[in-house]
Amino acid sequence: MSYVITGNPGVGKHTLTKEISKILHLPIIDINDIAQKFGLLEKSEEANDVDVIKLEKLIREEISQPVLIVGHLAPYVLSSNQIKKAIVLRKNPYDLISIYKERGYTKEKIKDNIGSEVLGVILYDTITRFGVEKTFQIDVTMQSIQETTKKVLDAIKGEIKTEEVDWLTTITEKNNLKEFFTY
Predict the structure, then answer these.
(1) Are the beta carbons of 179 and 110 closer than 8 angstroms?
(2) What is the average pLDDT across 84-111?
(3) In this predicted structure, what is the pLDDT of residue 50?
(4) 130: left (phi over 0), alpha (psi -120 to 50) or beta
(5) What are the two backbone dihedrals, phi and then psi, of residue 19, each rounded to the nearest 5 degrees?
(6) Bridge-partner residues for 48, per DSSP?
(7) Which strand (E) or helix (H) includes residue 48?
(8) How many Å apart are CA 26 and CA 52, to the nearest integer?
(9) Which string of DSSP letters, residue by residue, matches 60-77?
(10) Which end of the chain is more exposed for a tag (fewer CB within 10 A), N or C?
(11) pTM reported for the whole predicted model
């Protein structure tokens, strides 16, 4: 059984996974790397499209021992019987905006990713795919890598419960719904 680190782009998945890998002595499978290696990633101006059916098959073949799996596509290409726990990293959407701008994301891509974070799309899809008992949500906002690493290890050991994260209330209270959603 393997562990998954997932969440929206910019929340620190890869940095955290490297730290956890060193501590648990588990190899890393990066979903994006596999998609690129096998030519399953189609880049467009607004998004990277992936053939998740082919990717799911390839990842199934790659997992022959316990590993750390990292990537925002985890809930779309893995099944519950492949994983022991899934950690969904969450980050304040206001903090993500600057990260996305630094990465050169278009306004549309920023809005899509922020909307996904605000609504908890990856969390919802992770719970739907793996179950609530295997899914842990951790707010990494204003956390050092050491603090986040400790929380993830505690979640893996079953020593903490999932954290509550509600970005929708945060942006609603700041009257910023129109900034993140077209309606």
Answers:
(1) no
(2) 96
(3) 83
(4) alpha
(5) -65, -45
(6) 43
(7) strand 48-50
(8) 24
(9) HHH-SS--EEE-TTHHHH
(10) C
(11) 0.93
